[in-house]
Amino acid sequence: MDAILSDWLLERLDTDAPEPAYRQLFRLLQQAILSGRLAAGAKLPSSRTLGADLAIARNTVIQVYEQLLVEGYVETQSGSGTYVADTSPDRVDEGSAGAPRRAVRDRHRLSARGKRTIELSGVSKQQWGAFMPGVPDVTEFPLKAWTRLQSRIWRNPKPELMTYAPGGGYRPLRRALADHLRVARSANCQPEQIVITTGIHQSVDLAVRLLCDVGDQVWIEEPCYWGLRGILLSSGLKLTPIPVDGEGINPDAKHLARPPRLIICTPSHQYPLGMVMSLARRRMLLEYARQHNCWIIEDDYDSEFRFGIRPLASLQGLDTNGQVIYLSSFSKTLFPGMRVGYMAVPAPLADLFSLGLAELYREGQLMQQAVLAEFIDEGYLNSHIRRMRGLYAERRSLLIAAVQRRFGDALPVMGDEAGLHLVLGLPHLRDDWAVCRTAMERGIIARPLSAYYSVAKAAQVGLLLGYGCVPNEKIGPAFDTLADVIEEVSKAGRKTRRSVA
Ligand SMILES: Cc1ncc(COP(=O)(O)O)c(C=O)c1O
């Protein structure tokens, strides 16, 4: 319990934040108690243990415990320690005098799927810096061109661009995206099939709400993007993790015997391991989906950044039966905070998806969509992608060189032919979380590869390292800091194993 609590707190405490450690720790413990994460009666770690685990002064922990005591969140028992108090609200008398106290308390707690969503959450409290995966270099965004187009549109805004969006989004942007997809991804699509969303997260949410019922089975890749799991679980779907091999998602006979409602995959660049789905595997998947009437969601999150290898056409472009829902996003090509993505849906679903989008989310942002349409039409998107591809290729080489300088070929580098991150295998370690925690204390973000697996015993150990948002000159020094951590954790691991033996 102590270790779990310490890990949870460590992931959230930010020693660089302006908010003092005392306030942060108080707020986090308060939140843990109110949300039920720390149940009534649970014993808190001693101030000495918690201080040491969090690398903060023991006095800070004592001060926080005292404040929690004053405010009624904890109780002390002399000589025995500090315990979480029962903070459930007083019962409101609704004529159910005999109703158990717990039932009242439960109304204030999360739903089962809400709890699972929060428990499995993978979002990092820091979203910028070496080696944050999946984040592009937003400082390179062509601001001048964007501002010029934006001023033009804002100088004389049309009222219809300032109201809610009609289903599907701004028509000229849908046309520009359909043209782009046909050329860049060999997709088969017309502007009516394009639905503009706030990103892949929303696109997946919309697709599962419209196509799946609670309890439906969904195949996800093993490992896969953590964000998908949250969306699917919170929609009450049953996830079947399907292992990937060198050719992408690889269902075995047992899986094939139980067709899912939906298959979600990353054919252009498996996330996070980086392989490209082979043509044979693509054809197998399409044929299987056709025979069993399954939908396939193609998450094409970063196919624009490919180094030395030619992109395969999209899976959607091979689909002759209208079963693929193609998703893309501007989070990697422009900047994630823009929150614009789009889907290309099979023609018979197009109007339904546009309507569903407007109905569920009451979309807007048409002014931004108008700017984006002009940005694409005037060629800025393509030239920005071309320029960034060169920059990312350089950063990728610098990171690989830094890995080789420190470790030679001892640590495998995977998935480095495309995208904004690579995977550094740590086959000699058992705990990639330990590396990430210590690295975070030294200002380096690395995500543990094992966290992307749904089945713990299948998990490979390693690190996801994003190079997209790291300036060239910082890559070597930042990797050296990380390499020190890897070596320290490796040594500590060896000692622990020896002492256990
Ligand atoms: C595989 C994958 N899909 C989807 C997303 C999220 O896309 P968006 O920002 O468009 O919601 C990410 C973000 O890193 C990702 O890695």
From TrEMBL:
UniProt keyword annotation of DNA-binding present: yes
Keyword line: DNA-binding, Pyridoxal phosphate, Transcription, Transcription regulation
Transcription regulation is among the record's keywords: yes
Coiled coil: none
InterPro entries, alphabetized: Aminotransferase_I/II_large, HTH_trans_reg/aminotransferase, PyrdxlP-dep_Trfase, PyrdxlP-dep_Trfase_major, Tscrpt_reg_HTH_GntR, WH-like_DNA-bd_sf, WH_DNA-bd_sf
SMART domains: HTH_GNTR
Pfam families in the cross-refs: Aminotran_1_2 (PF00155), GntR (PF00392)
One GO molecular-function entry: pyridoxal phosphate binding
Start and end residues of each HTH gntR-type domain: 19-87
Region annotated Disordered, chain positions: 81-101
Family, similarity comment: In the C-terminal section; belongs to the class-I pyridoxal-phosphate-dependent aminotransferase family.
Name of the protein this chain belongs to: DNA-binding protein
Organism, scientific name: Rhodoferax koreensis
